[in-house]
Amino acid sequence: MAAVHSSGFRLTKEHFLVAVPVAVISAAAGFLVSRYLSSRSCKKHSVNAYFNKDSPKVVHSFDMEDIGTKAVYCRCWRSKKFPYCDGAHTKHNEETGDNVGPLIIKRKDA
Ligand code: FES
Fold first, then answer.
1. Residue 71 is part of a domain; what is its CATH number?
2. What is the CA(1)–ligand 1 centre distance, in A?
3. Tens of pLDDT along 5-50?
4. Buried b (16+ CB within 10 A) or exposed e, 64-92
5. Is 93 exposed, middle or buried (0-12, 13-18, 19+ CB in 10 A)?
6. Do the beta carbons of residue 75 and residue 102 sit within 8 Å?
7. What value does the mean pLDDT take over residues 99-108?
8. Residue 67 reports pLDDT greater than 80
9. Model confidence at 96, in pLDDT bands (50, 70, 90)?
10. pTM score
C-alpha cells in the first residue's frame, strides 16, 4: 500500500518505517541538547561570581550586640568588602540594568 502525494511522490510502508524512527530520534536528541544548553546557561547566571567559590555555601552570622548603631550589608555580591557593602552595586546596576542595593540595619534611635 502506498500513499500518493499530489506531486507524484509515493510514500511506501518502508518510507514510514525509516521516517518515524528518524523523527523520534531527532526530537529526542533536540530535547536533550536543549536541556543541556539550558542547564549550562543557568550556571553562568550565578549570583556569587567570585566570593569563596570553593565553599559549598557562604554564610555570615552576626550578633546584634556587635553591630553597633548601623551596618550596611551587600546584596549584589560584588563588594570587595563582602559581606559589607562598598558601593559596588552602583556599577553592577549600571552594567546590568539591575536595581539591587544593600541591606541596612540600624538602631531606631541612630
Ligand atoms: S556593594 Fe553590594 S549591595 Fe552595595
1. 3.40.5.90
2. 71
3. 677 777 788 888 888 889 999 999 998 988 887 766 555 678 898 8
4. eeeeeeebbbbebbbbeebbebeebbeeb
5. middle
6. yes
7. 95
8. yes
9. very high
10. 0.60
Q: In 10 A of CB 97, how many CB atoms?
A: 7
Nearest CA to 106 out of 60, 73, 59 is that of 73
What nine digits make up the cell of 110?
Answer: 541612630
Catalytic residue among 13, 43, 57, 108: 57
Mean pLDDT of the chain: 87
Residues 50 and 91 reside in one and the same domain? yes
Binding-site residues, ligand 1, Cβ < 6 A = 74-76, 78-79, 85-89, 100-102
Closest CA to 110 of 71, 69, 64, 73: 69
Contact 34, 71 (CB under 8 A): no
Domain count, the chain: 2
Q: Do 75 and 89 share a structural domain? A: yes
